[in-house]
Amino acid sequence: MQLIIQGTEVENFDLRALAKLARANQIERISGQAFRLKNIQQQDGVADYCKKVNLDFAFIPTNQLLSDFKLIAMDMDSTLLSIESIDEVADMHHIKPQVAEITLKTMRGEISFEESLTQRTALLNGLDAHALQKVYDERVQLSPGTEILLKKARNAGLKTMVISGGFTFFTDRIKERLNLDFAAANTLEIKNNKLTGKVLGKILGRQGKAEALLNVCDKHAIEHKQVIAIGDGANDLDMMAAAGISIAYHAKPVVQEKATYSINHVGLNGVINLFNE
User: What is the Cα–Cα distance from 111 to 105, expressed in whole angstroms?
Assistant: First the structure.
């Protein structure tokens, strides 16, 4: 096994302390502030130490290669993007605090995603549809390291996918902007150029996100163990459970508990360091 250490600033004395804890016999810089501790003998104490000094860590097999996987599937809001798009749309309707509170309850797993989306979308009733484009143009921001991760994944032969409980208005544009292979999300009902407060068709929630992932796998002969799934909220758990490797990205505790790995301090480019070249 190897121990991967990443952070915004990794001190030499922390690396030495972690190498001693893990009984590693070599420290190797991967890139920037990412390091590989080789031939570790134990894991006890590493998690507590990293939590204390704000470092990301992961125990990975020496033979874990990115090229062994065929698909990387990512949640959109607060994962691929650094915003919650529905909250920003709500801000255009001057109801962001109400919608954001429902969003937070959903991410913590306190209410079902389907119930949450129904409540939040209803609050958008009457909003001019042009507000969606305004949010995309003015507020959509990629999470740090997004484009680096996607480039590395493509170079390794992986297909790319965004799966969102948000809206197709945004996933369609993100898919085109980032040249993603697949996208799945919910569709807002718009009449007379205004949002009706309703979602068309079956809501793509926790189970739906997993189904969307599995449908792509079935159509393209991709085994579940060949999938990397990245998310941050409770509605990502089924999607992540259907993947060979799941990564909790700046995620709620309930997601970190279930994920293969967690990233809390670095950007999405940190995912690359969890795989050997």
Answer: 6
Q: Which residue has the tokens 């990502």?
A: 236
What pairs with residue 230 in β-bridges? Answer: 74, 247
Question: Is position 236 annotated as part of the catalytic site?
Answer: no
**CA nearest to 163, candidates 76, 227, 271:** 76
Which is nearest to 246 in space by CA: 227, 273, 218?
Answer: 227
Give the CATH superfamily of 68-274. Answer: HAD superfamily/HAD-like (3.40.50.1000)
238 in catalytic set? no
* Topology of domain 2-62, CATH: Alpha-Beta Plaits (3.30.70)
Look at 216 and 95; give whichever has higher pLDDT: 216
pLDDT digits (tens, 9 = 90+) for 245-275: 999 999 999 999 999 999 999 999 999 999 9
Instruction: Choose the catalytic residue: 14, 56, 68, 75.
Output: 75
- Could you say which of 48, 56, 68, 77 is catalytic? 77
